[in-house]
Specification:
Elements: E1 11-15, H1 21-29, E2 34-40, H2 45-61, E3 66-68, H3 72-81, E4 84-90, H4 101-109, E5 111-115, H5 138-150, E6 153-155, H6 161-170, E7 176-177, H7 194-202, E8 206-209, H8 224-238, E9 243-245, H9 256-263, H10 295-304, H11 309-327
Parallel strand pairs: 1-2, 2-4, 3-4, 4-5, 5-6, 7-8, 8-9
Length: 332
């Protein structure tokens, strides 16, 4: 099997890197044909549009390396042309503010994923750090319906248990958890329960395995063998066809960005989230995945863990491509 071709694309379904020509070149060196990038955490509509403007400038300046992706066919085009298709997404519903009409507008601008909540309660759903989880709100139900209609994926990566299960039930299209790991492997609060993962995959939804150290057993010292053995156990429990990679790579970001991610504008005190109080910055990546050039190592690790060539190709990107093909267009 050749990784990173139109037949077997490599897709990373979540990154929040400090984007640069160096990282765009590393995407190509690692054979990454498509990447879902975070263009908003707590930004308002106008602020997120400014981020789109920055991406438009990068698309123009680095057209030999990247272009904006909107459909699954753009992944195939990227693989054929030796470029990377970039898909937009939000880690919080802030860019739609309290206006449901902005869902369609954002889809027109290229947004293909939106988390219904980050770590806190939002207007749509509950985040995983709240003490109580009342589930999807009335507004959230309306937004789920609108996201289904236009072809924007519901992402529950940072959402709490009841909200996630309700989103799976309410949505008429499969949802995604783009970047998290099983709680049974590593009990980080952000990782997902067996109940959630069974319902997610049973309904056709996708799980992207995270490489963010706070989500890994052993943290920065997590081994490639350990990570791939976890994926093998997940495949035994849930099947291979709904598993992929969502690295949550935050490469080259300054530690000050952690404050924006966790605090936004809602807190005057540092919200340490999954990190410890004496480590407010980004943790070190495992030495086998420091940047996008580490993707071939993951493919090799999956093969070593017992996956055959077709299964490895599916996890590395084939499953996400199938999901992109059926998720990004208007509801049938």
């Amino acid at each position: 099997m050749t990784i990173g071709t139109a037949a077997t694309p490599v897709i990373d379904c979540l990154q929040y890197a400090n984007w640069s020509e160096k990282i765009f070149e590393q995407l190509r060196a690692g054979g990454v044909d498509a990447v879902h990038v975070t263009i908003a955490y707590h930004e308002t509509f106008r602020e997120a549009v400014i981020n789109v403007g920055q991406w438009n400038a990068w698309f123009e300046r680095h057209r030999d390396l990247i272009f904006q992706g909107r459909t699954g066919d753009d992944v195939r085009r990227a693989a054929a042309e030796g470029r990377t298709a970039v898909f937009f997404g939000f880690q919080n519903p802030s860019p739609i503010e309290d206006d449901i009409s902005l869902v369609e507008i954002w889809h027109t601008l290229g947004a293909r994923f939106m988390q219904l909540s980050y770590n806190n309660q939002s207007l749509l759903a509950t985040g995983c750090y709240e003490a109580e989880d009342p589930g999807i709100t009335r507004f959230g139900r309306q937004v789920i319906g609108e996201m289904n209609r236009v072809g924007m994926v519901i992402d529950m990566s940072h959402s709490a248990e009841r909200s996630t299960l309700e989103a799976i039930e309410i949505s008429q299209r499969p949802i995604a958890i783009t970047h998290a790991n099983p709680h049974w492997w590593h009990p980080a609060l952000r990782n997902k329960s067996d109940t959630v993962l069974r319902e997610l995959t049973r309904s056709g939804g996708m799980l992207g395995f995270s490489l963010y150290p706070h989500h890994l057993k052993g943290g920065s010292a997590c081994t490639l063998d350990g990570f791939c053995s976890m994926i093998a156990e997940a495949a035994n429990r849930y099947g291979v066809e709904n598993l992929g990679i969502g690295s949550d790579l935050c490469q080259d970001q300054p530690d000050s960005i952690v404050t924006w991610m966790r605090n936004g504008r809602w807190s005057k005190q540092m919200d340490y989230g999954e990190g410890s109080a004496d480590s407010a910055g980004f943790p070190d990546q495992p030495d086998w995945f420091r940047d996008n050039t580490g993707f071939p190592a993951i493919a090799a690790g999956l093969a070593k863990a017992g996956f055959d060539a077709s299964e490895t190709a599916a996890i590395m990107g084939g499953n996400w491509l199938r999901f992109y093909d059926t998720s990004f267009g208007p509801q049938a």
